[in-house]
Automatic annotation (TrEMBL):
Identification of the protein by name: HutD family protein
Domain of life: Bacteria
Database matches in Pfam families: HutD
PANTHER family membership: PROTEIN VES
InterPro entries: RmlC-like_jellyroll, RmlC_Cupin_sf, Uncharacterised_HutD/Ves
Coiled coil ranges: none
SUPFAM superfamilies in the record: RmlC-like cupins (SSF51182)
Amino acid sequence: MMRRLGPADYRDMPWKNGGGVTRELLKLPHPSDPARFLARLSIATVGESGPFSLFPGIERTLMLLDGAGMALTLGGAREVVLDRRYQPFVFPGEAETHCRLLGGPVRDFNLMVDRAQAEGSLEVVHLAPGETRTLAGAATVVLHVLEGRAAVAGTPLAAEEMLWLEAPGSLALRSDEGAVLAAILLSPRSLAP
C-alpha cells in the first residue's frame, strides 16, 4: 500500500496538557487499544517555555525545524540543548520534561512510537540536486519532505507532502533540485532484532 498525503490531510490537535496545538500529520492506530496510537507524526509550534505533555510507554523523537532552539530538562537532569536544525533527539515520553526556549518560538517535528508494540527511527536525508539515494525498507516507511522537491519510487513530492508506504522493499529517492526529507522507519516489536 502507498498513500500520498499533504496539508489538506493533516489536522490540528490540542496538546494533551492544554498548552498549545500540534499539526498531526499521521496517526497509526494501536493494534489492541483504539484510545491509543501505535505511532504518531506531528509538527508543533512552541510559543513559550513550559512543560511537555506526558506520554507513558511512548518513545519520542524530537527535531528542531525552525527557530533559535530549545533546552529540555528531563526528570530534573541536566539540560539538553536542541539548537541545530534536523538533529533528532530521542527521549522517553513518560519523563517529566520542561522546555526552555532559547530565543522565541520554534517549530519542531515529532515522532512518537508505542515502545511495547514497535520500534521507530527518524533519519534526515539530504539530497543534492540530481542525487539519487536508496533507502532500505521496513514494515512501514513514511517520508515527509521538509525542503525542496523529491521523487520517491517515481511519485513526485513537494515540501510538506508525505508518502506512507506499507512493507516496501528498498526505495529510490531522487531530487532534481535538492531536497531534505524526514524518513521514518517503523517495525513491529516482535519482528525487531
